[in-house]
Amino acid sequence: MTTTTTVAAAARSARRRPSGLGKVLLRRLTHAAVVVAGVVCLTFIIARQLPGDEAVTAAGARATPEQLAAARARLGLDDPLPVQLWHYLTGLVQGDLGTSLHTRQPVLEDLKRALPASLELVGSAMILAVLIGLPLGVTAARFAKRRTDLAVRTGSMLLVSVPVFWLALAMQLLLSTRLGWFPVAGEYDRSLDSTSPLTIYTNITAVDALITGNWPILFSTLHHLVLPALVVAAYPIGVVAQMTRAALIEESQQDHARMERALGFRPLEILLRFSLRPAIGPVLTLLALVFAYTLVNSVLVEAIFNWPGIGTYTADAIRSVDTPAIAGVTLVIALVYVLGNLAVDVAQIAIDPRTRKS
């Protein structure tokens, strides 16, 4: 009877305790919340110290002193900085990111229109990075210290080090202006708006065109997407290839790889069948970091290719000292970074349960 009671109590206690995955997710979410709160506070404080006067931007360059005073009072600029920060944080909790001084629209509404276009561009680039960078890394590891390895390492080093704006201009000049293979700029052929109007559901043009069966706009969008996606993908391809190579070479030096070679498995089979799975964890972690970096790095690419994403919106916000827009963009990028890392943590745990203890 005593044993039965003890077992039942242990079972109830186990049901109340979160699972191993639940504990990890709870710890990661707590850490993510602290990071986002820190980023929000720092961004707001730094934005308030930037050169320029928000009141002038809001009221206009020819505003009278009375109009400037009214703009200051409306924006709360006369309040102490802690009070301004408190008002900003309480607004964020209610989903209010403020009003853009440049577009005169709520920042949240602006971001709802701009962010999907950037995710379309950066997401396409990350898919290219995985499809191209991963096989390159495996090939370099398979032929380590040979000419193929040297070629892959040299090529990936060039992709990582070349300035993104130079690559964008070079590809635009060669593949668009000289050869005419791809459009110079834009998201899709705007003349299609009159013949094949697009129904908006997600604000991601390719997805909306696909789910509504709007093939002319879908093909035009994919055609316009090739060049900017390749330019944005250059850095991630180089980083993924190098990281995959290093992780696979390290894994091929472990005891299990020696045993597999002794058992007669071929080198490529050992890499793909036994070494790739434990080596993919660091690559996934790297992808989350590269995704956030690429989202920020796409500002110049979007400006060069006239892509209507968050990069173009950020460039306009910086030029006009639009503090609410700058703070909103920073918050969104921080959230993307944190959520990306969280997704990678979950993926790593699913692939390798040993990472729950880290």
Automatic annotation (TrEMBL):
Keywords: Cell membrane, Membrane, Transmembrane, Transmembrane helix, Transport. Pfam families: BPD_transp_1 (PF00528), BPD_transp_1_N (PF19300). InterPro entries: BPD_transp_1_N (IPR045621), MetI-like (IPR000515), MetI-like_sf (IPR035906). One of its GO terms (cellular component) is plasma membrane. It is a multi-pass membrane protein. PROSITE patterns: ABC_TM1 (PS50928). It is found in: Cell membrane. Gene3D superfamilies: MetI-like. GO terms for molecular function: dipeptide transmembrane transporter activity. It comes from the Bacteria. The chain crosses the membrane at residues 25-47, 121-144, 156-175, 225-248, 283-305, 325-351. Residues 115-348 form the ABC transmembrane type-1 domain. Belongs to the binding-protein-dependent transport system permease family. PANTHER family: DIPEPTIDE TRANSPORT SYSTEM PERMEASE PROTEIN DPPB-RELATED (PTHR43163:SF6). This is Peptide/nickel transport system permease protein. It comes from Nocardioides kongjuensis. The lineage of its organism: Bacteria, Bacillati, Actinomycetota, Actinomycetes, Propionibacteriales.
